[in-house]
């Protein structure tokens, strides 16, 4: 009888151990499926610094430290360019002057872009007074070394006697490199006489690396 009781106790103990083992295995499997909890810190031991290649996607709000030195700087450019230098320039001219004007055509050249800078022209505006039956054929903005130009439309503002006034104000996007100059060209059907015309440019300079 005592031997039977002993066997029953041993069997019960093994059954309890089996149940505990089953519960622990189930909890471990659940933890493996869920993965590490949010906010788990990862500490890299070696190698340091950690070499990274290819594309890296960083989410959340991490803090990234760069260990560049003065001999190996990290170039950073602000896309909004808050430090860019504004540019404005205005020219008055007549089609009877000798400064690139004569007959029914006129090339109005602005100042040279300084070394180490690039000029970005964003707006061109002005007014023309046409007399003597002259009519406007076209206006375009380009550079003194002709490799790019933008056509500028005009609007009829008013007519005073024999003089027709036309105005233009156009947003553009033209890059002018260092040692080059923006230039506005006017082409008319005939010479409009000794009447003062005006044209203005606006934009900004950016520093070249």
User: What series of H and E elements makes up the topology?
Assistant: HEEEEEEEEEE
**Fraction of residues in helices?**
10-25%
Rg is 39 Å
Q: What fraction of residues sit in β-strands?
A: 35-45%
Q: Might you state the CATH topology name of one domain?
A: Jelly Rolls
Gap between N and C termini, in Å?
98 Å
Instruction: Please report the number of helical segments.
Output: 1
Could you outline the blueprint of secondary structure elements for this entry?
Layout: H1 2-34, E1 85-93, E2 101-102, E3 105-109, E4 117-130, E5 136-143, E6 149-152, E7 155-160, E8 163-176, E9 182-188, E10 197-207
Antiparallel strand pairs: 1-10, 2-3, 3-9, 4-8, 4-10, 5-6, 5-9, 7-8
Report on the structure:
With 209 residues, this protein is α+β, with helices and mostly antiparallel strands. The protein has a domain at 85-207: Sandwich (Jelly Rolls). It contains one helix and ten strands, in the order H-E-E-E-E-E-E-E-E-E-E. It has one helix spanning 2-34; strands at 85-93, 101-102, 105-109, 117-130, 136-143, 149-152, 155-160, 163-176, 182-188, 197-207. The strands form two sheets. A five-stranded antiparallel beta sheet has the order 1-10-4-8-7, with no helix packed on it. A five-stranded antiparallel beta sheet has the order 2-3-9-5-6, with no helix packed on it. The longest helix is centred in the first third of the chain and has 33 residues, at 2-34. It is elongated and about 115 Å long.
């Amino acid at each position: 009888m005592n031997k039977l009781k002993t066997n029953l106790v041993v069997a019960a103990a093994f059954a309890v151990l089996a149940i505990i083992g089953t519960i622990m295995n189930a909890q471990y499997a659940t933890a493996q499926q869920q993965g590490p909890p949010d906010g788990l810190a990862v500490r890299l031991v070696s190698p340091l610094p950690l070499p990274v290649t290819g594309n890296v996607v960083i989410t959340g709000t991490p803090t990234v430290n760069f260990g560049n030195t003065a001999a190996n700087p990290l170039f950073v450019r602000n896309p909004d360019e808050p430090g860019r230098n504004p540019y404005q320039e205005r020219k008055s001219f007549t089609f009877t002057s000798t400064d690139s004007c004569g007959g029914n055509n006129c090339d109005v050249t602005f100042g040279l872009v300084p070394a180490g800078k690039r000029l970005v022209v964003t707006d061109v505006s002005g007014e023309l007074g046409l007399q003597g039956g002259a009519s406007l054929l076209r206006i375009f903005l380009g550079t003194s070394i002709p490799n790019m130009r933008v056509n500028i439309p005009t609007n009829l503002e008013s007519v005073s006697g024999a003089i027709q006034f036309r105005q233009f104000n156009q947003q553009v996007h033209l890059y002018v490199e260092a040692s080059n100059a923006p230039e506005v060209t006017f082409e008319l059907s005939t010479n409009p006489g000794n009447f003062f015309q005006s044209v203005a440019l606006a934009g900004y300079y950016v520093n070249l690396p």
